[in-house]
Every structure is written in structure tokens, then in C-alpha cells.
Model the fold of this input.
Amino acid sequence: MRSAETCLIDAELAAFLESPVMIIVGTGIGGVPEIGRGLGASVEAGGGALHLIVSAWQWPQTVSQARANGAIAVTFARPTDYVTYQVKGQVDRVAPLTPALQDRAARYAAEIVEVLAGLGMPPAITAPWRSRRDLVALRIRPRQVFVQTPGPRAGQVLSSHTA
Amino acid sequence: MTIPLSALDPCFDGVVPSILCTLASDGTPNISYLSHVARLGDSQVALSNQFFSKTSTNLRGNPRAALLVVDPRSGTQHRLDILYRESVHTGPAFDRMAADLRATSEQLGMADVMKLRAIDIFDVLDVRRVQSEQEATPQDRPSSQGLGRALAVTEALMRATDLGGMVDAVLDALASAFGHEAALLLLHEPARGCLVALGSRGYGASGIGAEVPLGEGLIGLAAQDRRPMRVGDASRLRRYGAAIVASSEQEARTRSVALPRLPDAMSQIAVPMEAQGRLQGMLFLESTRRLAFDAEDGVVLSLVARQLGLAIALAEAETGEAAPLLPPRGAEAAKGRAVQVVHHAQDDSVFIDHEYLVKGVPGRLLMWMLDAYSTSGRIDFTNREIRADAGMRLPELKDNLETRLLLLQRRLEDKQAPIRLHRPGRGRIRLEVEDQLHIFSDRNQG
Done:
């Protein structure tokens, strides 16, 4: 049994979330859902929180909804083999990017463009998904992590706060 | 709605995965990729329901969902507000999506995982374009280009005067009209539930005689469903058979010819050839370019394939009428080396000096002529006598004799066999035998 506070995101999962994977973001307010894309993520030491980088210019509703009620779901999918995890949690802070997160966003953008190009998606086609205007960091307190790799384990809870 | 749904058609090709977001009753979002979205008319979309049950549960509580679709040519994203209406398990829209899904998942090797249970129908409330600083310009073709291409190919077909000429004319004209690297033309073999390659362009080996079972791969699935199927980004697909190199040993061992492949194919399209309500064969085009074939190409190729289907049906019917009776001519005794011809009645496969030649109806046809050649030295035949012979009265041959003779003729040329087939005139067939044949068959020995 995982200890709720410390290990919801263990080192292995953290490494995956910080690797060049596709990041899609779900929020919602007043019963209306919204979709956005993330431009990199960084897991805090100990795995208790996750910083998700989002363009507030390209995805204004995502950021304003996260700010308003904090409810968020983020799916991380590796394009090469479809390994996928969904993290559900609560945004407790929306902040400008620290220098470290700026580096992270730049590195993520450079890496994911390579991965996608390697799969035959030309950089010019994937560039419109990665606006770098008005980047903000959503600090997410994860509540549950689900396996969503297509297959028999899809939808299973990987780890969860039970308290 | 500011943007008409039909303007988003390239987004529904299943190249870039779409994204769906729903909300649980407590407002918790759920976000996932989904492989297939189809447009139903001007105001609805259908989503393939292979969802994790969370999405389905959410939609029953709150039917509002957000959908993000991507134009694979430009990367442009569109955000759709949609409202869940119903799930359906039958009907034309379900069948179309099930077929699309089979085509993709089979090639991903995930056919079992991705079996379609239902499609979910949504009303589209709003369509918004997602803003972006950078946008690639789609390399749009002028919309009139399709008809021009269809005309160019059918014109070449119209000028051809015999069956072999038609096949060559269409394959050549397609290559110049579409600029793809490789193409295959396959015949439907209903008795054996497969398709057999009759001609090709752009592959190292011709592949004539190679077979594709109905329902297998893009060609087999499109044939089974009798509708065009496209793949625009094969980088997602598992590479089948890349290592299989066509060789005589391989052919002899498997009694089959390897299906030729374009190793770096990114785009493929398979289109059924039909006439008089029957599936006659398939046209298959491959390209190393991403998104080489669009929905319009599917329409254009369907027109071409039907025209070719009719032309073949006409050629079959015409030669059936025009069979001339010739005085039988004896052959001069062949003087070459001794060559062994072996026939296996079980599948009508024929081997020449241990090398696999052909099987099925073309094999049976060859043996029928070789029987007459070996017993009475005949080399001239008419299609009428083939049709009339009791042993050859096969349902498969009734409307297909000419195409099968062409297949046999081309395969003999491909193998540089010491037996060749010629067509000296309408309805006439002449055998040319260079070497001394020693013919063995395990058919009713007594």
C-alpha cells in the first residue's frame, strides 16, 4: 500500500511525467468542460505536487477554470507506445514560471518535437499545439492516478488518496 | 455555428488523435484521447465508444462534452462543444466507423483491444478555432483536380483495346495522375476468398500471383467491406513483412508469391473494383508521402475502379462471343532441355522444375492446355472450347476466363518459364513451349 502523501507520484512515474509525452488538460466549470494542452511538467520532490506548464494565451479557459475551482485532470501519453497515465487533482496555485520551469518548458518543447518528428509528424504541423505565449504554472495536488494505456488495465487506479 | 462542420473533414481522418473531456457529477474532469470521430451531416458527430467506462458514466450524468480535433495537414486545432444524444450499435454510421476502426487497429496489432461496441452520437453546439501564432498552410490542391485526374485515367483506359492493355494503361495513368510510388491491381477470387495480384508498378518484384485473404490488411478489409479505405500516416502502423524477401525458395515452400511492399510507405489507399454488383478486384496505391491521398482521391479512385471493372466485364463478355474455331495445329516437337512440370490437384498448384508457378484457376487452365499438348501436340486453343469442356465448367471461370488467362500469361513471363501463353487473336490462345515437358499430376491417377 502506498503512503498517500509521499508516494502518489513515485520516482518512476515522475520520470515518465517529465519525459517528452503528450500532455492534455481537462478542466470544467458550471458543467461545461474545457480542453487544453500542457507544455511540460515538473514533479516536486517527494511527489506531493506537480507543476504543469500551460499557455494562458492559447488556452485561456483552461487557466481561468483551473484558477476558479481548481478541478483538473491531466493525461500524459507517450506517442511511441501509447503508455498513458491520467492524474486527477486540485490546482492550488497559478503562478508565473520560475527560471527552472522556463527551462523545463523549453526542453520539453525541443524534445517532444523530436519525438513526434521521429514518428513522421513534421515540426511545422505540431508547432501550432505549443504556443509559448503567457506561460503559467498550475500547481496540482494529485488525488488519483489512473493507468490509461489502451488494454485490459485501462481505467485502473494506479494510486489514490484514501484519507 | 460559425465554422461549418464540413470544413473540418480532414480532422476526421483519424491521423492525429482527437481529445475528449467530460465532467463527473462532482465536477471532476476526465480527459482522454480517442481514435475515431466521424461527421454525421452538418450538425452531429459520432465518437467511437472504446471509452474507459468513466467517460460513459460522466456522459450519462452530464451530457456536455468538449472535443478537440486536429487538421493533420496544418496542425490547426478546433474545439467543439458537443452534447451527448445516444449510443447506437447498428446502422450505416456504426458500420462505417467499425470498418475504419478495424482497418486501423488491425494494422496497429490491437484488433482485440479496440473492437467497437457502440458509437456515441453528439449534437455539435459550437465550433471554435484554437488560436496559435504558428500555423502551417495546408498544401491544398485546387478542388477541380480530382475530376481532371479521373478523366486522364479513364481516357487512357478507353484507348486500350485488350485486357492486358487496360491493366497496363490504368496502372501507368494512375502513376502519372497521382504521383504515388507504387500501385497494385488485384483480382477477386471468390472461390478461395482472396485477392490475387494481376499487375503492379513501382515495386522491385512484380508480385503477380501474390494473394491477400479477404478481411486481412487494408486491401482485404476494404475488399470485404467493399468501400475505399485510407491510411495517411503509416508511421503509426506496425511494419509487417518488411523482412520478407521474395525468393523462389520462399515461393516453393509456401506455394505463394510474396505481396510486394513499399518499405517506407506513409500513405495507402485501397479501392474496390466492382461491376454488375460483384466485387471484381481492388486497386491499391502506396506513397512515401504523408497524407498523400485525401477523401477526394477516394472518390476519384472509386470512379476509376468502377470504370475499369466495367471495362473488364465487357472484355470478358466480348471475347466469349467472338471465339473463332481454328483448325487444330500441331506443335513442332520442342527440342530444348527436359523440364519437369508438377501439378498438385489439391490446390491446382503447378511447379516448373521445383519452382512454384501458380495455383487455383490459372493452374487448372494451364494443366488443361498441357494435357492436350502432351497427348496430341496441340498448341492452339479457343476460350469457347475451354468454357465448353466439362472438366473446366467452373463457376469461377464463367465470367473470369480472360482475366485468369492474363494472370497465367503474366506469371509465366515473370518466371521466365519455358512455357509461354500468347493471344494471337480474340478468343484465341496459343501455347509456346521451348523445352521438353515431363508432366506429372496427382489428379485421379486411374
About this structure: Residues 1-6 of chain A have pLDDT under 50 and may be disordered.
